[in-house]
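Obj: model holo form, ligand = EPZ.
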Amino acid sequence: MDKLLIEGGAPLVGEVAVSGAKNAALPIICASLLCGDTLNLTNIPQLNDVATMLRLIGQMGVAVTMGDNGMLALDSGKLDNPVAPYELVKTMRASILVLGPLLARCGEAKVSLPGGCAIGARPVDQHIKGLQAMGAEIRVEGGYVLARAPRLKGARIVTDMVTVTGTENLMMAAVLAEGETVIENAAREPEIVDLANCLTAMGARIAGAGSDRISIQGVERLHGADHAVMPDRIETGTYLCAAAATRGDVVLTRTSAALLDAVIGKLREAGCAIECRPDSIALKAPRRLKSVGVRTAPYPAFPTDMQAQFMAINCVAEGAAVIRETIFENRFMHAVELIRLGADIRIDASNAVVTGVPALDGATVMATDLRASASLVIAGLVARGETLIERIYHLDRGYEHIEEKLRRLGANVRRLR
Ligand code: EPZ
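Output (holo structure tokens):
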């Protein structure tokens, strides 16, 4: 298994481009299942999760053509196997996003239940409940969701909680349903808007994406389209945190500050000077950050996917701060690894009290999930001496070319095979 070896202490300085958003690319790739024409995508990030999703739809009969620099053509004209097998689904929970499109296009689907994952049980009951409201017959047998629906019918759906992929699955199911579907309590994440923009380019009729009420008028069929995937706001926030922790001075291009207001607001509170330009963000860090508390919540509030990274920067900030995780029940696993580096963190249920220390000291640590591994990278960049991060396959799921980008900014980092 690959490892990342970091020699800490170098401030991140310079300019780097942000990649396309993993959490927009994944549902948008699934949207290709909805029609037999070609969907041409650009700004697709080269990530393990994207590769897994392409393998998943490829074994269903979709023709996948990868071009250079993030171009991807998907043609589901010969889609003939509406099955998502456990072997693939177990490696990536977002596989559940094929359920809605397969039901809408084929009238049937057999999708393995995603197992739990490190950060929580992450059930898909809301996905199922919404599809049943649209007339799907669904039963769970042998670890698989078996679904049938000759033609989905529009319905008014109120999800019990805000769910990002739940909203995406239901939106994709609704675009070919008979009549109107209204999703109340919908997730408002920018990735939902990006998916809605792609579906609209394909001929769907959607209103309200980005608000908590999305209405979809079903149409008979969709057609091919071209779509450029939005920038990755979590990758953006991760590099901003890395620069903030290392007294850095960076410019992130091909991204937009409007995607992460809450994160930028907290970094400013911590003492960073941040300049937002039309498609870039410049950050100058203070000599020492001030501790800043965060409470994660659905968009536009502070994103749970930035919680681990913010815990890392609070480890070396001045003062103490409380980090409250309200979305997932077990998303503090990075804390014990940060403590191995000398951090002062006390966990109490869904609260973490982080007291800044003058310095961290390098050690060997283990990545446990995607964003936890990002927090260990940030800590390693600022720790004295060498930090060796094990199991960085977690990192490769969501950060394109991470060591090249960090080296470009002056970090001493290399991958050990
Ligand atoms: C999406 O996961 C993201 N993944 C996650 O990013 C992100 O952390 C999460 O949204 C929250 O923002 C993708 O978009 C591919 P949810 P998702 O459904 O959709 C509960 C990353 O790091 N829930 O919004 O799976 C659930 O357990 C990943 O890139 C149900 O109970 O998250 C959680 O507590 C990690 N039943 C809460 O709702 C359901 O049917 C929010 O989950 C659905 C969700």
